């Protein structure tokens, strides 16, 4: 079954390479930009089917936007798993304007490789690339957070100090240190025990 996944990945990978992406590791295709070290990533994953479909492999594909400079600033304040996380990520189909449901595509024989690769490519065009085009800059992402865009729910649905550190880091990169810290002071909950400690770290480490 791994051979089927590799065959699909090779065909989709050729399309992505033609679009300016390079392969990184076994499952990622990435396009880099210099400004704030932005990375647009298309990632493949697979899982075995559950009974009664144990003979099938299910292929999943995600798209994500990383900003390495945001992660570096983030790490100067709090060190945890989020330091390496993307700003936004999800199934490629989630970012389609219509029919935006999670997809996990089953494959069980080589005759399906061509059609499944084409299906994935269409979902990348309509979904993954749609994400990248709608949020081409940090400014557009911050604007999306402010306007409560549904794809950025993690940043505005619940007030969590950990996410707000990342928003402040974005603000620092496109505005300035004073604006970023002021935003954090105004928007993080006063009840958060670590708030003052985080502010001190921002003032010292940024």
UniProtKB/TrEMBL annotation:
Origin superkingdom: Bacteria
Protein name: Uncharacterized protein
Source organism (scientific name): Aquimarina amphilecti
């Amino acid at each position: 079954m791994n051979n089927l996944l590799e065959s699909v990945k090779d065909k989709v990978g050729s399309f992505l390479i033609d679009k300016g992406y390079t392969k990184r590791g076994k499952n990622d295709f990435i396009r880099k930009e210099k400004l704030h070290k932005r990375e647009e990533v298309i990632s493949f994953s697979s899982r075995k089917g559950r009974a009664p479909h144990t003979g099938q492999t299910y292929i999943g594909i995600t798209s994500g936007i990383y900003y390495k400079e945001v992660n570096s600033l983030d790490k100067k304040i709090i060190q945890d798993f989020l330091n390496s996380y993307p700003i936004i990520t999800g199934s490629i189909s989630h970012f389609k304007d219509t029919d935006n449901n999670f997809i996990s595509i089953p494959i069980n024989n080589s005759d399906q490789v061509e059609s499944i690769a084409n299906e994935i490519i269409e979902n990348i065009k309509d979904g993954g690339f749609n994400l990248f085009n709608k949020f081409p800059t940090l400014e557009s992402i911050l604007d999306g957070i402010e306007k409560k865009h549904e794809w950025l729910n993690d940043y505005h649905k619940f007030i969590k100090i950990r996410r707000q550190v990342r928003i402040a880091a974005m603000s620092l990169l496109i505005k300035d240190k004073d604006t970023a810290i002021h935003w954090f002071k105004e928007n993080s909950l006063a009840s958060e025990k670590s708030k003052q400690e985080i502010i001190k770290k921002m003032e010292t480490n940024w």
